[in-house]
Amino acid sequence: MALRMKSSMFVGLFLLSLAWKAAWAKVQVNMEDRVEVFLGDTAQITCMFTVSDSPDNVIIQWYMITKTNVRLRIYYGNSTMQVVDRGGQFTDKISVNGKGNSSEVVLTIRDVKVEDELEFICHVNGMTAGSDEGRTMLKVFASPDRPIITGEESGISVSNENPSKIGSCEAKNGYPRPNITWYRDQSSLQNTPGEVIVVTLVTKESSGLYTVQSDLHLNVVKKDKDSFFYCEVSYLVPGGTKMTETNKINITVYYPTTSLDVWVESPKGSVKEGDTVEVHCRADGNPQPPFTFMHNMEELKSELNVLVLKDVTRQSNGNITCTALDLDTYEETLGQTELFVDYLDPVVLIPKDTHVIAQGEELMATCNAQSSLPTHTVWFKKGKKVAEGHTLTLKDAVFDMAGTYVCVVKVPSLEGLETTGSLRVFVQGRPEIKKSADPVQEVSPEKPQKLSCHARGYPTPVITWSSSDESQILKVSQRETEDEVLSVVSVKVTSDITAYCNASNDHGTVSISFNLKAIVQTTSSAPSTSEGSGVIIAVIIICILLLAILGSVLYFLYKKGKLPCGRSGKQDLTKPNKGGIVVEMKSDNTEEAVLLSVNGDKKPPSDQGDKYMYVQK
């Protein structure tokens, strides 16, 4: 009995010790709630644990929770071995770092797929210390491709009763599913009954990624013609959310016409007679309706909604009306513009065409042209301005005032509006002949000589030629200009001759003479300049030689005493020298030189000249 009690006590103490030990032995596991990773990257799930008893004898097991909520083991290991379960989806793509004797193990999943987005369990069995487990959710993300937006190519009418499709926006290959939001300008568009309808279509691809397509339907109004539409795609990424916007699109809105704008497109500014006028018409509706043009109640044809009026005149003045017909409502809209054509009538000249005045008289001519605008008049003669204003006055008329006067009338404010007229003025009187520059001329008989005679007057003078020897006049030619008559005669001058130019009209006759002297030609030709110079030089040389010879002879005679004067030079010089010879003599010594003149006078030494002898008879 006592033995039994001892045994029972021993068993009780043993069980109590085990219970006490179990109460104090403990395993704790800590894990992140979620791990986020991009598609195709490597995920690492960390399991941290503590074991209070026998930490070297720990068994680590990893589990996954399938989509059908089934718990499957994928790994088993302790301090001595590591085993990856075969035949599962992670057999070839996971590895575990750390063993049972460590306080941390890491599950590494390579090349993460969408289907790998599962919950993973780390189970730690500490044997006598007990067991514990932790859970981590693996989240997989894939950014979608750049979204694409397309708008409706056909126009959308504001008269449509139901919302019309505006465009479509598509985001491909995103995970989790992207969200699409539509915007008009800066305002987001939400589903509004009867006004805005957004239809979203989500497609899950075989890869597990999502493609989202969103169609916008809208009740358009006229102001939507200037609006821009786009969509915004938002999607999740590890640690947050990103957004991408599409390009902006504009739609074509059809709306009815309420008013018309009519204007003259060409020419710009004022319109003058002879212009080609283009009239344009534009409606404020879209599309542009067909137009009908009326001009002074007459319907005119137009091309491409443009009215063309060619060679307009002042009779083209009036209203131009444009009418537009709305093909939806069959309502007409009118617009109009006023056409005014400026004009300038032909010149009225008084006197007109031609006018004859006598010398000394006065002429007053006027030039006027009716115009719708102020005008300016200028008179020209031979391109030179001679007067300004409507009146031309010629006082004390002379022949220089004869000629053609042109009056030019312009409209300064409108280029191209111009007209002209001309007046031919004749000044009547006795002819005048232009004076010849050289009335006396020496002429060679070898070729004919041409003589010109200019005469003016009114009536036009008649020019005739006469000569002291009519046989020498060969040919006469004559031509008239606006101001004068020119006559040219050819004369063969064989002897001195006088030619006469005679100009005559109803008021008298005038004449002018030309004296022509024939040049007499000798048979021998004159020596050339070089030959004449040679002759002169030869004559000079001969004269010098003769003088030298004469001087030598005189000196020889003087030495021989053959001359009348003695060696002393004191010969009587009081007698006249009938021979008329004047001799200047000088001896070799310092005797006084004596100059003998024809009358025997003695000149002083200062007047005796050179040391040479001059003999003059």
Q: What distinguishing features does this structure have?
A:
46% strand, 617 residues, mainly beta, 8-stranded mixed β-sheet, 46 strands, disordered C terminus
Task: Give a brief rundown of this model.
Helices cover 9% and strands 46% of the residues. The protein is built from two helices and 46 strands.
Number of extended strands: 46
The averaged pLDDT comes out at 83
What is the oligomeric state here? Answer: single chain
Distance between the termini: 219 Å
How many helices?
2
What is the 3D shape?
elongated
What is the rounded Rg?
Answer: 68 Å
The major pleated sheet works out as: 8 strands, mixed
DSSP strand content: over 45%
Identify low-pLDDT runs: 1-7, 13-25, 524-529, 566-617
Considering DSSP H and I runs of 4 or more, what fraction of the residues is helical?
A: under 10%
Written account of the structure:
With 617 residues, the chain is mainly beta. It contains two helices and 46 strands. The strands form twelve sheets. Strands 31, 33, 34, 36, 37, 39, 41 and 42 form an eight-stranded mixed sheet that branches. The chain is elongated, with a radius of gyration of 68 Å. It starts with a helix and ends in a 22-residue tail after the last strand. Mean pLDDT is 83; it is low at 1-7, 13-25, 524-529 and 566-617.
